[in-house]
Design brief:
By secondary structure, this protein is of the alpha/beta class. The protein has 13 helices and 21 strands. Helix 9 crosses helix 10.
Length: 488
Amino acid sequence: MTVPAPVRSALGLLLAGVQNPPADLQALVIAPAAGRCGPAANGPVDAFRDHGVLHTTVGTTAVTLRVLSAQHTRCWLLSCDLPGQMSSVGGPMSGVEVLPAAVTDTAQLNEFMLDRGLGGDWPQVVRFGSADRLLVAFTDGIRPHAAVHARDASPKPSRGGDIRVAVLGAGVIGKRVIHEVMSDDRFTLAGVVVRSANTFVHARPDVPYYAFDEDTARTLPTQGVGVRGRLEDLLTQADVVIDCGPSRSGAARAALYREAGIRSVFCGGERDSTLGPVVHPALSSEELLSAQSVRLTSCNTTALARVVAALAPASIAEVDVTVVRCCTDTDKAGKGITNGAVLGPTPSHHAQDLVSVVPGLRASSLALTVPMDAGHVIHARISLAPQLSRRAALARLADASRLNVIHEGSTIDQVHRRATMKTPWHNRYDLDVQVVDTGTPDRLDLWLALDNEAITIPEALDVLAATTAGPARGETVGAGPVGKNAAT
C-alpha cells in the first residue's frame, strides 16, 4: 500500500502551516472503509483493519504513518503531535479550518459541510477542537489552495410570500423546512426557534434565530449566535408555526401556540390526538388540512399515503407492509445499533396512522430496525379491488406525482441514490417504487425506498400553504437569502 494522495496533501498543508517543521513526524491515519470517501461496496464491517506502517517524506520531514481502515465512508482522519506548534495549526494563515465546538464526530462534520453547501467532498482540511493531540479530517476532494470559507448553501432571495412561517427546531427536518420556506414565494420566514447552537446554526448565521426560553437567550450569545427575541415574541409575528421539535414533545408547547392564537403544524412522530388530526394533502379534505392544529404523517406513513393516493383508496382491498427502518439520522453517530436488527414484536403505528387518514382502509404493518442511515425501505403487499387491474394500477403509479417507478429488474441502491442527488443535503423528495413481479394478477408487491429526512418536506409545505395569512401583527423579520423551492 502506498501513501494515499489525500493523506499526502493533508500532511503537506499541516506542515506548511507551522513555522519550524519537525525533522520527523509520526501519525495515525484512519481511512474510509473502501479506501475512498463516499458509498462503499465493501470494507471492514464491525471491525478495524490494520494496513501496517508506511514511510514517506513531505518537504523536509520524514513521516511514519500507521494506517487503519474502519467502517465509515465520510472522510479521512489523521492524528499526530506537533509539539510546540499546535496553536498555529488552524490559524488564519495555516490553510486549516478549526471546527465549531458543536462538531465532535465525523457525522456532524459531514452535516456541517452540507449545511454550508460545500457538499460531502469538501476541499479543505479541518481540525477538531483544541485537544493536545492534533486531529484533522479531509476528503478525497482536498485542494491545497481552496478557499476555506467558500459557501454556496444560501438560496437566492424570493419575493417573500403572504404566509409568515415560524419554525421551531433546526434539526434534520427543521433545517430542510427552513430552506424550503425561504425558497418558496408563498412564504416569508418569520424566524426560527432553537434551544442550542447545533451545526446548522453555526453554518447558517443568516437565519433569524429566536431563543426557546430565558436560559437559551443567555447561552446562545456566548456561542456566537445572535438572537432576535424569544419564542413568545416570534409567535406574535407569524401566521403559522411548524413544530419540528423532538418526536412526541409537541404537546408541551401546544398551549403556547393556542394562547398566541397561531395555527400549528406538528411534524410526524406526534402521537397525541389533542394536537389535531393526522393529515396528508392528497388524502385529507381541505377542511382538515386548514384546521387550527394538525399533525403531519411520519416519513414511512407519507410514503404509504402517496401510493394509496395514486391507486385511489376505493381501488385497494388491503394493504400489508413491513417497514425496514434505519436506526439513526445522518448526523447522529451516537444513536442506533451497530451490528444487528431489532424486530418489532407488535404491529407498528404506520397502518394505524394510514387508517386515521383514510378511514375504512384495511391495513396492517410490522417494522424492524437495522444499522443504516441512508433511509427507510418498505415491502408493501397491496391487494387490489376487482375494479382495478394490475396493469391499470401500475399505470396509475407511473403517472403519479412524487413517485419514481423503477423499471422491473433494476436495483435500488439507497446509498448511491443519495450520493448522486444534486439537491441540498442530497435530499430525495420522491419515493422510489420498485415493482416486484410475483405473477399474482390481483396484487402488487412493491419495494418502497425513501429518504427519511426529506420525504415529508413537500407535504409539509402543502399543509403550510393551507394557512390563511392574517393581518399584520408587527414587523415581520426578513427572510434573508432564498432560492427556488425544490420540494414542489
